[in-house]
Amino acid sequence: MTAPLHETSAGESTATVVGAPDAPGTPDTSGTGAKVIQGRSPWQIAWTRLKRDKLALAGAFVVVFLILVAIFAPVIVGLLGHPPEEFHEDQIDPLFGTPIGSWGGISSDFLLGVEPVNGRDVFSRIVYGARISLLVAFLAAVFAVVLGTVLGIIAGYFGGWVDAALSRIMDVMLAFPQLLFTIALVSVLPNQFLGLDGSGVRIAALVLVIGFFGWPYVGRIVRGQTLSLRNREYVEAAQSLGAGRLYILRRELLPNLIAPIMVYATLMIPTNILTEAALSFLGAGVKPPTASWGQMLSTAITTYEADPVFMVIPGLAIFVTVLAFNLFGDGVRDALDPKGSR
User: Fold this and answer.
1) DSSP tag of 3
2) How far, in Å, are 50, 58, 75, 269 from residue 63 at the CA level?
3) How far apart are CA 250 and CA 153, in angstroms?
4) CB–CB of 111/81 below 8 Å?
5) Distances from the Cα of 291 to the Cα of 53, 84, 102, 299, 313, angstroms
6) 120: closest CA among 322, 313, 316, 315?
């Protein structure tokens, strides 16, 4: 026979089993021969599952490493490279415009070689390019998640004409050609806008456009989850006790939506990285000479036959970054799945 659960602290509970034999080596602190069993919260269970997923942990390690590289880019370049916008014509063959030496001019002074024609340090530009990709991807994901969560939970909870109107807006947004709109918008942007200039204007535009076209995906997921949660017993109990709609949305529904929102946010970031790289490749990204991985790939088109290394390095940076985020996102999804066995 078991005694009822009693609260010990926030988010934890224990159950006292009366008359149960102690496990070997387990100290009896109660003096009655009973054993105390401590419960685990859903987040503790998810963390235990995530620690068992080696691929997810490897992806998380790479993600953290890339974030640190982006944050400390000036320090890293100061120790191991050269300024990203500095030309090194002495490293370029004046006849062919290609780097002197093999493998794109890789040496102890230029760890990843130099760019054809102008001789800029590829290592420095890769490091600074990580800043642009991660900054745009993270900010656009935050913008999309916040907007999609707010509109999705409103559509799912209120239903009726509110749900119908927001759902039709989501359908229109999902059918809109994002790339063409972004290219057209960037082409008419002024060099200075709202206190920003140059690449700052482009970065702000990329964040807003990618995030604005990404919120319907989050909104649909949140709406579907809200539809299944709004008729649960704890929501009806809160309504019967006189709780207002804002309280129910904030205290009853939103905490139960955090898990799917987190999963989709982690899987949205690599998509945003690819979108930013594609826009930079098409000339709608940051302005030169600001470093960007997609821009480096676009520049490499004219020189890949003479210097293929210059195309491989930024392509590999995009591949590794997206793969790491996808592995980590899959691990988070499996860990937060209540039906998962891992």
Assistant:
1) P
2) 15, 9, 19, 11
3) 10
4) yes
5) 34, 7, 23, 11, 13
6) 313
Q: State the residue for tokens 């109990």.
A: 237
Contacts of 94 (CB under 8 A, 6+ apart): none
Nearest by Cα to 144 from 220, 196, 200, 229:
220
In terms of DSSP bridges, do strands 196-197 and 35-38 run parallel, antiparallel, or are they unpaired?
unpaired
- Which residue has tokens 């953290």? 64
Distance CA 116, CA 93 (A): 9
CA distance 214 to 208: 10
Q: Given pLDDT bands bounded at 50, 70 and 90, which one contains residue 32?
A: low
pLDDT for res 16? 40
Amino acid at 218: V
The dihedral built from the CA positions of residue 210, 297, 67 and 333, taken in this order, carries a sign that is positive
284: number of Cβ within 10 Å:
23
Paired with 2 in beta bridges are 17
Q: What are phi and psi of 317, to 5 degrees?
A: -65, -45
pLDDT in tens, 63-94: 999 999 999 999 999 999 888 888 888 888 88
Q: Between the CA of residue 321 and those of 7, 60, 210, 294, 302, what are the distances in Å?
A: 43, 11, 18, 13, 25
What DSSP state is assigned to residue 190? -
Contact 163, 224 (CB under 8 A): no
Rounded Cα gap, residues 190 and 194, in angstroms = 10
CB 330 within 8 A of CB 49: no
Query: What is residue 5's predicted lDDT score, i.e. its pLDDT?
Result: 41
Closest CA to 273 of 310, 303, 312, 314: 314
Is 39 in a helix, a strand, or coil? Answer: coil
Rg (CA), the chain: 26
